[in-house]
Design brief:
The complex is a heterodimer of chains A (about 300) and B (about 325). Chain A is an alpha/beta fold and about 300 residues long. Chain A contains ten helices and nine strands. In chain A, the strands form three sheets. A five-stranded parallel sheet of chain A has the order 1-2-3-9-8, sandwiched between helices. In chain A, strands 4-5 form a two-stranded antiparallel ribbon. The longest helix of chain A is centred in the first third of the chain and has 22 residues. With about 325 residues, chain B is α/β, with parallel strands linked by helices. Chain B has two domains: about 170 residues, Thiamin diphosphate (ThDP)-binding fold, Pyr/PP domains (Rossmann fold), CATH 3.40.50.970; about 130 residues, Rossmann fold (3-Layer(aba) Sandwich). Helices cover about 35% and strands about 20% of the residues of chain B. Classes of the chains: A alpha/beta (about 300), B alpha/beta (about 325). At the A-B interface, helix 5 and helix 7 of A face helix 4 and helix 5 of B.
């Protein structure tokens, strides 16, 4: 089907989008540092996914956030709200100066996503596992109303621990929701530590059945998700994989997802938690902890 | 006003949704494999494209409904009250209540009168859960006539609703001239000596209790408090002021439901002696619904006893 014109899709070269991604990372550091709390790790890991969506894929209009035919972006991993706010601000949904009001009394920028605050945020989230169900509701509504908008849902490792996500995965395939694309920000780290062994640095340690607590205090092998692609294929989805920090690869996968008929698409975006800041990369400690002022300075120097 | 006719309040759901959709409402039903019990399936027969099945997956049901509501639909979801709110409270809180979405939950099998299926199917804490969710309006119809009107009021009023229905065929109290009003209690019987405030199946029991009390020349007021939230505080406080004592009657835990709500309202503005008829701190068992009501003391006799107790405690 021929799509309507795309108000906000940028034709900017990838170099410019890469520069934008770096600015978004700086915003995330400044926002969480100013708030003194928040989730920098999982915000930094999904920056390219958000930039690819908002700058090249989604039909959206910052000046008309309630446009009925807009593509929907659903942030299931609501703790990555800082990354979403930063991208929305770069797209013109809110002033850039507002970003550092994150988590403060009176701010529109709540600690986890709240629908409509600011306009552009589609769903209230922050309790994992609900986003894919909501996305299916939106995708079904598009069919009922004869609208051609598409729905994109961003999931985390933790989202995939929740049984509800698999209820929704079954239902999305059952309804042949080919207007729905889910993306997993597959950084393999969650609140307490490593989801399996693949990013745990001390691979010389004997692997044990079930989760265990390592000497650094992180939990290892919390709930292994592999074989991840096979799971989703078995549920009836088209599965694509991409380097989650490669804008070109992400855009190609997102475009390929639009072409499939009769099935929803899952894109496994292989990412690094805390991407772009040396001491946050692959470090579970920064899942839910803000940088200190000194750490923020160092991070911003690395992101200069 | 009373009649011998009997009907289950859940039977109002399917037919009412069919009528309202024919009248032009943009209703969608999401169903978790109990549509034959909740009667939502009757809607699916007539409007197959508006009937979405998700299987036995109540959490998914709630957030799929949220997505549809966010796209402008009036969404009804229904299952046994033990499963929703019981199994999906977080989804109802974050998915529906906090964003204030236009989703109506009908708990079709509530209270111990669900009967033979036993305690796993008997929701006696659903009102405690739903009354705690800010933004949800909570309605407990006393019969099938009121159930139809409560469902219509919910469908025509934007925002989240919980409507508590029952499985067995309970007495029909109202005739077709009755008009349910959101936020209003309905005075079924005037009285000066004491008030019984009741919901659901206990409304008919309250009327019978008032008859028993009348034989002792006790003049008992009976209020049907179908609209638990918003609550008709004016009618509640007038009853406290004018009759000086209140008995609440509900097929639900005495904690967290009608009794707690009335106690808090009265304590704040017009303290009077109170008594609470309902399930004490325990779960029930399998049994025929009328036998269960007797076994657990949810009877006209127990309501009358509580009324005498309240009257004896009234101040000079």
């Amino acid at each position: 089907m021929k799509q309507p014109p795309l108000p906000s899709v940028s034709s900017a070269p990838l170099k410019e989008l890469e520069a934008l991604a770096k600015r978004v990372r700086r915003h995330i550091i400044e926002m969480t540092a100013a708030a003194g709390s928040g989730h920098p790790g999982g915000s930094l890991s999904c920056v390219e996914i958000l930039v690819a969506l908002y700058c090249r894929v989604l039909r959206h209009d910052a000046h008309n956030p309630a446009w009925p035919d807009r593509d929907r972006f659903i942030l299931s991993k609501g703790h990555a709200a800082p990354a979403h706010y930063a991208v929305l601000a770069e797209c013109g949904y809110l002033p850039l100066e507002e970003l550092t009001s994150l988590r403060k009394l009176g701010s529109r920028l709540q600690g986890h996503s709240v629908a409509g605050s600011p306009p552009g945020v589609e769903m209230t989230s922050g309790s994992l596992g609900m986003g894919l169900s909501f996305s299916l509701g939106q995708a079904l509504a598009a069919h009922l109303d004869g609208r051609s908008y598409r729905v994109y849902c961003l999931l985390s490792d933790g989202d995939l621990n929740e049984g509800q996500t698999w209820e929704a995965a079954m239902a999305c395939a059952h309804y042949r929701a080919d207007n729905l694309t889910a993306i997993v920000d597959y950084n393999r780290i969650q609140n307490d530590g490593f989801s399996d062994y693949s990013r745990y640095q001390d691979s010389s340690r004997p692997q044990r059945v079930g989760g265990w607590v390592g000497p650094e205090g992180h939990t290892v092998n919390i709930m292994g998700l592999q074989p991840l692609a096979e799971k989703w294929r078995a549920f009836g989805w088209q599965v694509l994989e991409a380097d989650g920090h490669d804008l070109g690869a992400l855009i190609a996968a997102l475009e390929k997802a639009q072409a499939v008929e009769g099935r929803p698409t899952l894109i496994i975006a292989h990412t690094v938690k805390g991407k772009g800041v040396s001491f946050m990369e692959n470090n579970p400690a920064f899942h839910g902890k803000a940088p200190t002022p000194e750490q923020a300075q160092q991070a911003l120097a690395e992101l200069a | 006003m009373t009649s011998q006719a009997r009907a289950a309040t859940r039977e109002a759901l399917g037919p009412t949704l069919v009528r309202l959709t024919r009248e032009g409402l943009d209703i969608v039903v999401v169903d978790a494999d109990l549509g034959s019990s909740t009667t939502a399936r009757d809607f699916g027969k007539v409007f197959p494209d508006r009937f979405i099945t998700v299987g036995v997956a109540e959490q998914n049901m709630v957030n799929v409904a949220a997505g549809l509501a966010a796209a402008g639909k009036t969404v009804f979801i229904s299952t046994f009250a033990v499963f929703a709110p019981g199994r999906c409270f977080d989804q109802l809180r974050l998915g529906i209540a906090q964003p204030g979405l236009n989703v109506k939950l009908v708990g079709s099998h509530s209270g111990i009168i669900t009967g033979e299926d036993g305690p796993s199917a008997q929701a006696i804490d659903d009102l405690a859960l739903m009354l705690s969710l800010s933004g949800f309006r909570v309605l407990v119809p006393a019969d099938v006539v009121e159930a139809e009107q409560a469902i219509e009021a919910a469908a025509r009023t934007d925002g989240p609703f919980y409507i508590r229905c029952v499985r067995p065929k309970i007495p029909v109290i109202y005739d077709q001239d009755y008009r349910f009003q959101l936020g209003k209690a309905h005075l079924l019987r005037p009285g000066k000596d004491v008030t019984v405030m009741a919901i659901g199946v206990m409304v008919f029991a309250a009327l019978e209790a008032a008859e028993l009390l009348a034989q002792e020349r006790i003049d008992c007021r009976v209020l049907n408090v179908c609209s638990l939230k918003p609550l008709d505080e004016e009618a509640v406080l007038a009853a406290a002021r004018e009759t000086g004592g209140i008995v609440t009657a509900e097929d639900h835990l005495v904690h967290g439901g009608l009794g707690s709500l009335i106690a808090q309202t009265v304590a704040r503005h017009q303290p009077v002696p109170l008594a609470f008829v309902g399930m004490q701190d325990q779960y029930a068992t399998s049994g025929r619904w009328d036998e269960l009501l007797k076994h657990y003391g949810l009877t006209p006799e127990k309501i009358a006893e509580a009324a005498r107790d309240v009257i004896s405690r009234k101040g000079g």
